[in-house]
Design a protein that fits this description.
about 220 residues, alpha/beta, Rossmann fold, 6-stranded mixed sheet, globular
Length: about 220
């Protein structure tokens, strides 16, 4: 393990962001678990990549966001310049250091997916051309009408495909369902490095060794 990757976990309030992290790292979440609204919490975990290496990840569990629009106007963002209030956007300091974003919605609450659409646009506008890893997690927090559930997940999957973001469906009550998305995130944050960052120096070293052998003969 070398560096510690910094990942921000965000989404609408009440979608289970804290429950997902607590279950992933500690495995202590059950139907009787109770969570209070988050202001900000930090979790550090060693997570395995799909190559088998373990990497350190620091997760910033953020305060839940309010839906930008309500009533008849509720829906996906119509204007990229729409002004949002402070409780509808991520705090600016997260955009300065985050290397990855885990955006969480509740598969039983369609409005929580609308929040992610605003959130993605806000991140894109303010990350200063920095490359970040993003993924979307649909967390099923309770029973719901089957048709409504399928419509929300289908809408999320289509949106993620257009935005070129990986989409996962999980349940915070089912710890194994969380492994794949977080292995994916950790692997993307820690790509395979070349054997040397200075290939010309490697070539020069080999030539020097060859010349030394020739002189010795």
């Amino acid at each position: 393990m070398g560096k510690t990757s910094k990942v921000v976990v965000c989404g609408m309030k009440g979608v289970g962001k804290t429950a997902v992290l607590e279950q992933l790292i500690y495995g202590n979440v059950n139907l009787k678990s109770c969570f209070y609204p988050t202001i900000e919490d930090i979790y550090v975990a060693n997570i395995e990549t799909d190559r088998g290496s373990k990497e350190r990840v620091c997760f910033y569990d953020t305060a839940g966001l309010e839906p930008p629009l309500t009533g008849e106007l509720k829906g996906p963002p119509q204007s990229p310049t729409m002004q949002l209030t402070s409780n509808q956007v991520l705090q600016r300091h997260y955009l300065g250091f985050a290397e990855g974003f885990v955006m969480v919605y509740d598969t039983t609450r369609p409005e929580s997916l609308d929040v992610l659409m605003y959130l993605k646009k806000d991140i894109d506008r303010n990350k200063d051309k920095k490359e970040v890893v993003m993924m979307v997690i649909g967390n099923r927090t309770g029973p719901d009408d089957v048709n409504s559930l399928e419509n929300t997940c289908s809408k999320a999957s289509n949106w993620c495909a257009r935005e070129k973001i990986r989409h996962f469906e999980v349940s915070a009550m089912d710890r194994p369902s969380l492994y794949e998305p977080f292995i994916f995130m950790t692997t993307r944050l820690n790509p395979v490095q070349n054997k040397t960052a200075f290939p010309q120096l490697s070539t020069l070293s080999k030539l020097t060794q060859k010349n030394n052998k020739s002189e010795a003969m």
